[in-house]
Design brief:
It comes from Methanofollis aquaemaris. The chain has 135 residues and is an alpha+beta fold. It has 3 helices and 7 strands; from the N terminus they run ββαβαββαββ.
Length: 135
Amino acid sequence: MSFIEVPHPADVKVRVRADDCNTLFAEAARAMFSVMYVTAEDRGVERTLAVSSDDLTSLMVDFLSELLYISEVDRVVFSTFEVEIDGTDLKARAFGEPFDPARHLGGMEIKGVSYSGLGIVRDGEQFCSEILFDV
């Protein structure tokens, strides 16, 4: 697993690690949906998105926030992601399944992605980020 939940007194915080920045963003998305729905599978739902921001930190918040919006509006649950970052522009494909209350009510509702403490750093050979989700 490339992410772990880090103790936080009020919200949910995850630490994500990956070998490259594209994978870091994909794993951050996977962590967010794991917190919200626990389990999800690729059952033919696919969405594409593009996000541009001023810097990588903002790009992470904007990317995850866009996925939250698509998930809520389209009532879909994503499980895997393909991310391609060029500077501060991101293109992604998200794969998953339609929301099913019988399968997807085991997690926590995430209201938003916070800038609090958010950063993207290179830790040796890996990229690392801690992301706080407002619940």
